[in-house]
Design goal:
By secondary structure, the chain is of the alpha/beta class. It is built from eleven helices and 24 strands. Helix 2 packs antiparallel against helix 3, helix 2 runs parallel beside helix 7 and helix 9 runs antiparallel to helix 10. Pfam families: Beta_helix (PF13229).
């Protein structure tokens, strides 16, 4: 099959109107209790059942509640209400969960007409149980109304006022309630010191230096970020999860520098360096990279590591003009199910190691990788035990007579 025809076919299969609930990937027990709580509004009266059951079913679909669980809702409403409603309050134990629940409750109540008074009483009772302040109640009622009217300007105004009053709410939830809202935060020289915790969870643009030091924490999640500068972590903590990070320009040869940090996890990230810099340099500790793409690097390797252990799973490095992975000193390397495309360096286009620790590379694919002298795909500085390569594939890697250099054990498919 022609590859472009295949992409067109897959594109046509995607349901672009599908809504994924913020809690779609929670466990089924949580989702059942959550949906039971919302069901109080839908099943409460004959009028509400007539008006709301269709929309309630959409919530069950969006949250991906299995039919085997959904089938028990009516029975438990009728026979086990007192017991099950306590489970609802038990699982809604954080503000984010209560806020999301409130959003669903209000979205469902938008469809009530004859049952409007009953719906208002249900919402007010939940607000009281959650101990919402007047500001919280006002925000959700008004933000829901702005979303219903598709008034994004009003939605943004309400959000900024809510934040100014000292409250926090995730961008994911804002988008779930009002899908057309677009908010971009702008930061200049973001400096985090002892004890500070800073969360970036909406589209953002960063100008200048980001410094995370002395126990501070930077969390970047569920958003797109454009950066003109670099990120330095020294004795702090950084978490990057479900992020698209695009480099517009870089003030260093590497975008993310990490030192004096015991453990770093980077998951579900696309880092596009636009040939301005390398990707990540960690000098100490452990680095785990899952489902990450690092693209278009230059001046420095995509990943440079001199810590204790580097673990890579399901990760892609592509168009890395100053090398893919570089492991030095005593770093242990574990690579599984990764792709390396057009990575080049003098020795070991995709992976270079002069570490004294063990290395294990499995189930990975190397395409168009070049080591200008030795090791088109993989180069080990020392020939020693503990350097193992199993079930890896190589396509158009050069030099052909030295695709892998100094492996102790190698098994090709």
């Amino acid at each position: 099959m022609d590859i472009f025809e295949y992409f067109k076919k897959k594109d046509g299969e995607i349901d672009r109107d599908e809504v994924i609930h913020p809690f779609a990937y929670k466990d089924n027990t949580f989702k059942y209790s959550y949906c039971f709580g919302i069901g109080v509004l839908a099943y409460g009266t004959v009028k509400s059942m007539r008006e709301l059951l269709g929309e309630y079913q959409k919530i069950l679909t969006n949250i991906k509640l299995p039919s085997s669980y959904a089938g028990k809702l009516v029975e438990d409403m009728n026979n086990n209400f007192d017991y099950k409603i306590n489970d609802v309050f038990a699982v809604l134990d954080t503000k984010e969960k209560q806020y999301t629940f409130t959003a669903d409750l209000l979205k469902l109540s938008n469809f009530s007409l004859w049952s409007e008074d009953y719906g208002k009483k249900v919402c007010q009772n939940y607000f009281a149980i959650f101990k919402f302040t007047g500001d919280e109640k006002e925000f959700f009622l008004q933000y829901n109304e702005a979303a219903r009217k598709k008034d994004t300007n009003e939605a943004i105004r309400l959000y900024h006022r809510f934040i100014k009053d000292g409250y926090t709410i995730s961008y994911n939830l804002l988008k779930y309630i009002c899908e057309d809202i677009l908010i971009e935060d702008i930061y200049d020289n973001l400096i985090l010191n002892t004890g500070e915790i800073f969360i970036i969870d909406k589209p953002s643009r960063i100008h200048g230096q980001v410094a995370v030091t002395n126990g501070a924490v930077l969390i970047i999640k569920n958003c797109e970020v454009r950066i003109n500068g670099s990120i330095m972590v020294d004795g702090g903590r950084i978490v990057i999860d479900t992020v698209k990070l695009t480099v517009e320009d870089c003030t260093s040869d590497t975008m993310i520098h990490i030192t004096n940090t015991a453990k770093v996890d980077i998951s579900t990230v696309e880092l596009n360096c636009n040939f301005k810099c390398g990707g990540i340099w960690q000098k100490r500790g452990c680095l785990t990279i899952n489902n990450v793409s690092i693209l278009n690097t230059d001046l420095a390797p995509a990943i440079r590591f001199t810590g204790d252990s580097l673990i890579m799973n399901g990760t892609t490095l592509a168009d890395c003009l100053a090398g893919g992975v570089r492991v030095k000193e005593t770093g242990r390397l574990v690579v599984d199910d990764c792709d390396f495309y057009h990575c080049e360096e003098e020795h070991g286009g995709a992976i270079y190691s002069d570490s004294l620790s063990d290395s294990r590379i499995t189930n990975s694919r190397f395409t168009n990788c070049v080591g200008r002298y030795l090791g088109g795909a993989i180069y080990f500085e020392y020939e020693k035990y503990g350097q193992k390569i199993y079930r890896c594939e190589y396509d158009h890697c050069l030099p052909e007579d030295s695709i892998v250099f100094n492996a102790c054990e190698e098994e090709r498919p």
